[in-house]
Amino acid sequence: MRLTYALWFTMAFLVAMWSVYVLNEVLDLGWRKHGVHPRSVQGLTGILTYPFLHGDWGHLWNNTMSFFTLNGFLFYFYRSIALRVWLWLFLLSGLMLWGLAVDGNHIGASGIIYGLAAFLFTSGVIRNNRLLLRVSLAVAFLYGGIVWWMLPIDDHVSWEGHLSGAVTGTLLALAFRRQGPKDPVYAFERESEDATLPEWWMAAHPNHPDTLAQRERDSHKQDAPMTTTSTPPPRFGHSSQS
Q: Residue 47: pLDDT above 50?
C-alpha cells in the first residue's frame, strides 16, 4: 500500500506534466508564456502553472527522472505528512520565486525538485531516525551535484527557481521535524514484544508508542504486590534416640 500510494501520486503529476507538454507542442498553444513573471500581478497565475511547462524534450526528461525518484522517496518514507509537505512546497516555492527573481519567464518543475531534495536531505539529518538518515545520504549521493545550479552560472537556467525550491524544502523540513515517521525498533534491539527496550532508546524517543508501552509495563511491575512463600527454617543437630 505504501508503494502504491507513492507511485500513484508521482505518476499522476508526471502524466499531467507530459500531457501539457505534448498538447502544447502538437497544437501550438503557446502555453510557455504562462510561467512565473517576477513581481508582476499577471505573473501570479504562473505560480500554479509553471511546474507543468517545459522548454524542450531534454528539459522535460531530466525533470521527469529526478521528480520520479525524489517524489517517490517523499511519499514512501514520509507517507503521513507527504501530501501536506508537497502542497506547501508547490505553493511556497513558486511564491518565493515570484518575489526573488529579477525578470524573465520561469518555467519547469525544477523548483519542486530542488525543494524535494532539500526536504529529504535536511529532514534525514535533523531527525533522530536511522532509516531517514539513509534516505538523506542516498539523496546526497544521487543529487549532490545539483547544488551548483543554485548559482547564476547560466543565463538560460532559472537559478532563482532552484534556490527558491531549496530554501522552501529546508524550511519545511524544520517545520515538520516533529511530525511523520518515527525511528523503527529493529529485531536486534528487541527480541520480542515483551522484551525490555534499551534505556537510551526510550530516552531518545519519549513519545514513541513502544516507549509508552514499556513505561506502562514497568509501572505495572512496580505496582504489583510481591508474593513470597514461607518455608520452615532448616534444623541442625543430631537426633537422639532413647
A: yes
Cα 139 to Cα 24: distance, rounded to the nearest angstrom: 32
Dihedral through CA 9, CA 15, CA 18, CA 20, nearest 10? -100
Phi-psi region of 63 (alpha: psi -120 to 50; beta: other; left: phi over 0): alpha
Domain extent for 133: 2-175
- Within a domain: 217: no
Report the distance separating Cα 136 and Cα 122, nearest Å: 7
Would you state the cell numbers that stand for residue 180, as one nine-digit string? 511523520
Which residue shows C-alpha cell 505495572? 220
Amino acid code (one letter) for 222:
Q
SS3 129: coil
pLDDT of residue 190 exceeding 90: no
**What does the block give as the cell for 209?**
508508542
> What pLDDT is attached to residue 42?
85
Residue 34's CATH number: 1.20.1540.10
Q: How far apart are CA 83 and CA 71, in angstroms?
A: 10
**Residues 150/100, Cβ–Cβ less than 8 Å:** no
In this prediction, residues 161-188 reach a mean pLDDT of: 86
On average, the pLDDT of the chain sits at 85
